[in-house]
Amino acid sequence: MSLNPASQPLVLEAHGIVKELGEGAGRIMAVKGVDIALKSGELTLLMGPSGSGKTTLLSILGCILSPTAGTVSIAGTPTAGLKPEALAMLRRTHIGYIFQSYNLFPTLTAVENVRIALDVAGVTGAVAIQKAEQALRDVGLGHKFTSYPAHLSGGEKQRVAVARAIASAPSIVLADEPTAALDSENGHGVMRLLAQIAREQNRSILVVTHDSRTLMYADRVIHIEDGKIVSEEHPAKAPVTELSGKAILAAAPVAVAADNTPAEKPRRKSAPQRTKEPAEAKILTDLIQKRKSNA
Ligand SMILES: Nc1ncnc2c1ncn2[C@@H]1O[C@H](COP(=O)(O)OP(=O)(O)OP(=O)(O)O)[C@@H](O)[C@H]1O
Ligand SMILES: [Mg+2]
Predict the structure, then answer these.
(1) Residues having CB within 6 Å of any atom of ligand 1
(2) How many Å apart are CA 39 and CA 43, to the nearest integer?
């Protein structure tokens, strides 16, 4: 059953977000006073040029980075003043993350890769296996439980990453350029999947992207430039089929763009290159520590 986003409660609210990064003369204001609210059942795109502050803002909304100024509330709980353990618990309970580069553990099967995220959220044993398998079925990978990442295609790897993000039923899913490494068909497949998860499982999904192929799946598109939100629009959406307990991709119609090339990434002048996004690094650390402690 699809729910109307207009009638949904806010699951995330952020006001007056400012973020300064770097040291000394290199210090910059990456986010310059952003207000944003996310509702259940809605797929929102955050679009803007390279260096405009998308990943930084996503990391703040995902409670990975703390803002220099401003407030964030997750499911009605203000994050300001929370101890690190309480913040980590809020993050694990309410937020799932998806990254461009999948971040799957190469030595773990698809089910194990999803299970480890459930582990971090405190779900273990037979229940964890059952939830991991269901999440994989939901993304159309019911036949790949025991496959290792090296034996999965790029689109399949990203679907395992989507399963990992949704397995513990977080109210918010944050995705940083989830289609950037995928070809047209797989890019559409992942976006269609995220749109269906938002509507049918009533999650709030925020996707950072440069990729105009994603526009047709969005309820809202927020444009950011130079650390500030400059506009918001509500584009026409592609129809999606209901989950109905079936594999989403198997049930969904395939829409393939005429242009099979990945979207060109506009670069902001003099944006320094970094090796690892902060949110990605933090989540990886969480997962690796958990894995070590289970070994
Ligand atoms: N740790 C850091 N130290 C200093 N500057 C940083 C740091 N992280 C990001 N920045 C700068 O902050 C600005 C915003 O970076 P951010 O990664 O949020 O951009 P983005 O919109 O995600 O870009 P892209 O599309 O290339 O991923 C950029 O100018 C970047 O160089
Ligand atoms: Mg980025």
Answers:
(1) 21-22, 28, 30, 48, 50-56, 271-272, 274
(2) 9
Closest protein CA for atom 14 of ligand 1:
53
In order along its 295 residues, the chain shows pLDDT tens digits of 445 555 667 899 999 999 999 999 999 999 999 999 999 999 999 999 999 999 999 999 999 999 999 999 999 999 999 999 999 999 989 999 998 888 999 999 999 999 998 998 889 999 999 999 999 999 999 999 999 999 999 999 999 999 999 999 999 999 999 998 888 998 999 999 999 999 999 999 999 998 888 999 999 999 999 999 999 998 876 555 443 333 344 333 333 233 333 333 444 433 343 434 555 555 555 555 555 555 5
Which ligand has its closest atom nearest to the C-alpha of 54? Answer: 1
CATH number of 8-18+29-294: 3.40.50.300
